[in-house]
Amino acid sequence: MLYYTQIIFLKEGMEKPFNLFEEMVIPLLGKHNGKLLYRIRPNKDSIIEGIDKPYEIHIIEFQTKSDFESYANDKERIKHMNLKDQSVEKIQLIEGKSI
Asked: What is the mean pLDDT of the chain?
């Protein structure tokens, strides 16, 4: 199993298009052997240290790296990338595995 953690920062006031993007693409995970384990929306009191407060943190599990790449290149997901591009300031993506 591989795990991907996304720390997602939005442009100010762009929650609605981002949430619409998520609504469209999260259901595609299963098609690519992926599973959303956590979708966390931290508040400022839950951050002990950090430069900026992320809008959301996702932890996603995939069977293989090729499953992750297949999801990333899914035609239905790509069709909605304009919503992501207009709403996301930056994403920090961390790849890991169980030990």
From this structure: 96
